[in-house]
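TA notes, week 10

Several of you asked for a full example with nothing omitted. So below is the full record: structure tokens for the whole chain, then the designed sequence directly under it. When grading your own attempts, check the secondary structure regions first.
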């Protein structure tokens, strides 16, 4: 990826698409965090009973979606038997079911399910990424691992030149988004908290669709759907708050 790839103009879709593809290939080939490399490969070898016959990806995950996206969704990290198995972010687990069902309802996805990399899913106007690119033990990256991954998110954002709304899923995704944007002080994270940035872009926060939140009713589907409806409203309106 050339030194100016992060500064390509929004109108240069072909060049930005090619640069995103090159960045994705670089992410997939990352071995910078020994603990995460060991864990993602162990999980891919040993598997779990319900996925015993499935091939596992076992590598880092790049982002996925439309290079002309108006909204960027940022999660925590791949699930051990979700993205780490299927090779696509938020794919093959219950959290991903919630994400892509909501994106479909909001008009960003051509189908409500995301099962594997070749299932025909397409996003229009949205891009999905994660703060961490490898499945971490106990679903918890260390601060050093978090910081090692941050440049990937920064470079993706530089190439997603039309993004107007950031949707962090959970406090970890929110903190990662704030670090990349240099947002200080950071308003307290909370569901549907909205933050207008100095350049007219927005952050719209959501609880993470983890089973801990969805099974207990902390996050319901109407609550989650409302986040993406609001993101579409703000993304369409650009820098002006709709009335």
């Amino acid at each position: 990826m050339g030194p100016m790839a992060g500064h390509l103009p929004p109108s240069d879709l072909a060049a930005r698409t090619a640069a995103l593809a090159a960045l994705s290939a670089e992410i997939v080939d990352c071995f910078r965090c020994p603990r995460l490399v060991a864990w993602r490969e162990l999980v891919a070898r040993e598997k779990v009973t319900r996925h015993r016959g499935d091939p596992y990806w076992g590598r880092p995950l790049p982002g996925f979606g439309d290079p002309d996206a108006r909204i960027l969704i940022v999660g925590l990290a791949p699930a051990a038997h979700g993205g780490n198995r299927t090779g696509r972010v938020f794919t093959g687990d219950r959290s991903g079911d919630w994400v892509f069902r909501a994106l479909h309802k909001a008009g960003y996805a051509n189908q409500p399910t995301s099962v594997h990399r070749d299932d025909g899913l397409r996003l229009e106007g949205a891009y999905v990424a994660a703060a961490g690119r490898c499945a971490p033990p106990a679903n918890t990256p260390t601060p050093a691992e978090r910081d090692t991954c941050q440049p990937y998110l920064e470079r993706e954002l530089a190439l997603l030149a039309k993004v107007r709304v950031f949707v962090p899923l959970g406090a970890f995704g929110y903190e990662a988004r704030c670090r990349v944007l240099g947002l200080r002080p950071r308003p307290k994270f909370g569901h549907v908290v909205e933050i207008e940035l100095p350049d007219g872009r927005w952050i719209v926060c959501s609880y993470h669709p983890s089973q801990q939140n969805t099974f207990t009713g902390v996050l319901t589907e109407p609550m989650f759907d409302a986040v993406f409806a609001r993101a579409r409203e703000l993304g369409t309106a650009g820098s002006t708050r709709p009335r």
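The radius of gyration is 17 Å. Use that as a sanity check on your answer.
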